[in-house]
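My current task is to audit a protein record that another person submitted. Please read both lines and tell me whether the tokens look consistent with the sequence. Do not assume that whoever made the record got everything right. I have pasted the whole thing underneath without changing anything:

===
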Amino acid sequence: MSASEATPDPTADEQLLIDDARKQRRRQRSGFNFIITLVVAAVFGVVGWLVIFQARPFIKSIPFLPLGSVTTFLLYVGLAAFGLAALCVVGAWLFAKPGKQWGDPLVGGCPRCGNWTLRQRTIEHYTEEPGNLRHYIKGVVTLCATKGCQHATATVTTPARAN
């Protein structure tokens, strides 16, 4: 296929996968996932701080209260919250960085623009229809990473409905 030939129009299932892939790439580029993950980490950090440095001293200050297991439990809850906050920060740094490229590199030139910037990833799409019908579509989507190029193809590996 040369650069001047048009890509065939995708089917409905392929178009759903392409739309999901473009949405994922847009969210990753915008940093939305990164910010949300850091906000969750901050919430866990605040919960850990409140439990360890506010709730534990308050409970210890109450007279005639058996404290052994209660304060130990609160200490473990606070440390677990701090641990989850740390895991969220590490996960955001490794997986949700806005500068990270979407998908895996694919060898070959883009049929539309000719640049060697094709990237692919396996995408899953779930749809719900009236009557509790759920459809699951899975496939491999290839997008061109060149700015302004809208080339996209999809290969459905698990179709939504039997044809």
Observations:
- The longest strand covers residues 118-129.
- The two ends are 28 Å apart (CA to CA).
- Confidence is low (pLDDT under 50) at residues 1-6.
- The chain has three helices and four strands.
